[in-house]
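tokens incoming
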């Protein structure tokens, strides 16, 4: 029997069974129906259907075309991934900058989020109870059902039937008796076919068949002319029949993650289609008839094998989002300029070397442009006007050797620029005019100098200069008062300016793999510093002032061949969790360092440590020491001298041996 907590009942009211299309999809997203009798016996929500009732986990297109369309249009918002070179876009609110700090997310223990399925139900009893109560909604989801009883035909009053997350391979023909049914949710089963009797469901609006084992779209689906929402994501479908043209009322259609190689011309008959997701398939071409779907707002074609896009795409003037990432395109049609409502242009992961003249300028509502991982050798033609409303540009992984002078002169909203992995050897003279910049990624280029004018970027919070050829930094770097991340890894720096101590908001400083012989004493002023990476340099010592970094959590000073000792002031870094001193010629670690904090991991492989004194331990303190030892050794040569260990065995010191001498 179903517990009271699992069953929600209310008196049957006057709600019409012939609901509108939006109501049918809306109830699938979040059914509450205060005027209707509801009978729910299923287990917890599956991840897919939870996504249909709330904001989804967003995919590569940075939004779910399926679920966003199920939300009330007034409340729906576009959510996008954030990274250096990408932004959060919410066109209904004032634009805000969201800064992503590389490495800020710490590892956390997690537990599986999927709830434990309920025990097998007595489905026959549940159907009987539903009939007796006259419920119009039946939820048997996640109930481990492998077959549906024939008595389902007696529930002729049903309007919504949820069976997701079960073990169904098929449905009984008797489902065809449910002629008032408007919503049928069958996702996360093992369904391979549907009975022809479903053709009697002339009121069916929403059919969800995601995550099943369909080899083809069942013939009966093409007969369900009342459908407005059809989800077929993650099946094994290879062919879409010409009969798809029958579903003229479709507004939401997902074929994502199947094995489809082509679309029929009949797709152009779906003139009411608003969102269409056919991403993650094997399409090489689109039928020109796609241009007849003039109400399309979102078209997701990413992760296919598209070689071209038809010019008729320009007929889709209502298009707001177009996903073209990761295809095999060498160009895009000029007619895209007609799609003036687009707010994002993203062709990442193609082989495009240039855009049609003035294309970006015509798309006046663009706020984000992503051209990364293509074959661009220069910026798109169109001048400064093409970036006038843009606040994020990602040109990562191309072959661009310069940023044209004045190209951003009208880009007053530009806050994020990602030029990582190009061929830049210098920065433009007007760099100082980028005054609204918040994230700037210039990593993996050929830069030898940073202009003094960088001081003008007063709003800068993230600056990535890794893997260049820099020998020094300008003293004006200290004027970037809001800087939180400074990445200088793999350059040729021999020293850091004293002015770096003025970066009081700095949380992450990476100077790994340079030629530094010392760190400035002013580093002790970086009170918010949490991560300091200074390994693979030529450091001979660390400044005593490092002990004032009370928020420091990770310290990497590994592979400094001239570093023979550590200052005892490190003991004052009370939040230190990881200290890597691997491959440094240290013979001892000051006792004060390892005696602080509830837990400290010291990575010390490849040193000359022979004795570690660990006084004043609390019972809960643990130090993990990673060392190298000779292969035949039974005495690691590293011992704890605290009284607890000497009396009761090594309680606090754990020796880890990652490798051995050869």
């Amino acid at each position: 029997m179903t517990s009271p907590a699992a069953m929600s009942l209310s008196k049957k009211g006057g709600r019409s069974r012939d609901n509108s299309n939006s109501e049918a999809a809306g109830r699938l997203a979040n059914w509450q129906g205060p005027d209707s009798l509801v009978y729910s016996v299923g287990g917890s929500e599956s991840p897919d259907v939870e996504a249909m009732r709330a904001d989804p986990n967003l995919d590569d297109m940075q939004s779910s075309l399926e679920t966003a369309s199920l939300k009330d249009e007034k409340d729906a918002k576009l959510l996008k991934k954030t990274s250096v070179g990408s932004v959060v876009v919410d066109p209904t609110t004032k634009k805000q900058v969201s800064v992503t700090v590389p490495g800020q997310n710490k590892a956390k223990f997690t537990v599986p989020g999927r709830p434990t399925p309920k025990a097998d139900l007595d489905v026959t009893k549940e159907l009987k109870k539903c009939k007796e109560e006259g419920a119009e909604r039946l939820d048997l989801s996640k109930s481990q059902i492998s077959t549906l009883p024939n008595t389902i035909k007696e529930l002729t009053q049903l309007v919504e039937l949820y069976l997701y997350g079960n073990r169904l391979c098929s449905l009984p023909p008797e489902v065809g008796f449910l002629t008032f049914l408007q919503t049928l949710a069958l996702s996360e089963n093992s369904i391979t076919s549907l009975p022809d009797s479903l053709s009697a469901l002339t009121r069916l609006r929403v059919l969800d068949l995601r995550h099943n084992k369909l080899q083809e779209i069942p013939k009966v689906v093409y007969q369900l002319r009342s459908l407005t929402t059809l989800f077929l994501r993650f099946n094994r479908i290879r062919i879409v029949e010409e009969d798809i043209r029958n579903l003229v009322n479709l507004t939401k259609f997902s074929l994502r993650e199947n094995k489809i190689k082509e679309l029929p011309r009949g797709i152009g008959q779906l003139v009411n289609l608003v969102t269409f997701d056919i991403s993650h398939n094997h399409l090489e071409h689109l039928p020109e008839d796609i241009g007849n779907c003039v109400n399309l707002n979102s078209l997701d074609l990413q992760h296919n094998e598209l070689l071209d896009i038809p010019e008729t795409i320009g007929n889709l003037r209502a298009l707001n989002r177009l996903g073209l990432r990761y295809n095999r395109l060498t160009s895009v049609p000029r007619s895209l300029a007609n799609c003036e409502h687009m707010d994002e242009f993203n062709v990442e992961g193609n082989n495009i070397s240039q855009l049609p003249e003035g294309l970006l300028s015509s798309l006046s509502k663009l706020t984000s442009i992503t051209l990364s991982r293509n074959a661009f050798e220069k910026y798109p033609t169109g001048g400064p006007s093409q970036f006038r409303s843009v606040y994020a540009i990602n040109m990562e992984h191309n072959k661009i050797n310069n940023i044209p002078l004045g190209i951003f002169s009208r880009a007053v909203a530009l806050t994020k620029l990602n030029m990582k992995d190009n061929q830049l050897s210098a920065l433009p003279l007007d760099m100082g005019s980028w005054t609204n910049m918040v994230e700037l990624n210039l990593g993996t280029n050929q830069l030898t100098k940073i202009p003094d004018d960088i001081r003008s970027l007063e709003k800068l919070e993230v600056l990535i200069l890794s893997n260049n050829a820099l020998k020094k930094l300008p003293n004006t770097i200290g004027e970037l008062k809001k800087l939180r991340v400074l990445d200088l890894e793999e350059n040729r720096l021999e020293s850091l300016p004293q002015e770096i101590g003025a970066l009081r908001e700095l949380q992450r400083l990476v100077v790994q793999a340079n030629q530094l012989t010392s760190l400035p004493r002013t580093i002790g002023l970086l009170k918010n510093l949490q991560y300091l990476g200074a390994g693979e340099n030529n450091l001979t010592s660390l400044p005593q002032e490092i002990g004032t970094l009370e928020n420091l959590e990770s310290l990497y000073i590994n592979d400094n061949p001239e570093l023979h000792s550590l200052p005892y002031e490190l003991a004052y870094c009370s939040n230190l969790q990881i200290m890597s001193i691997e491959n440094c010629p240290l013979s001892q670690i000051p006792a004060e360092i390892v005696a602080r904090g509830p837990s400290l991991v010291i990575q010390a492989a490849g040193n000359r440590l022979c004795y570690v004194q660990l006084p004043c331990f609390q019972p809960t303190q643990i130090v993990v020491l990673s060392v190298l030892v000779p292969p035949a050794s039974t005495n690691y040569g590293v011992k704890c001298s605290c009284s607890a260990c000497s009396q009761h065995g090594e309680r606090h010191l754990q020796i880890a041996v990652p490798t051995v001498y050869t």
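note: The first strand starts at residue 38 and ends at 40.
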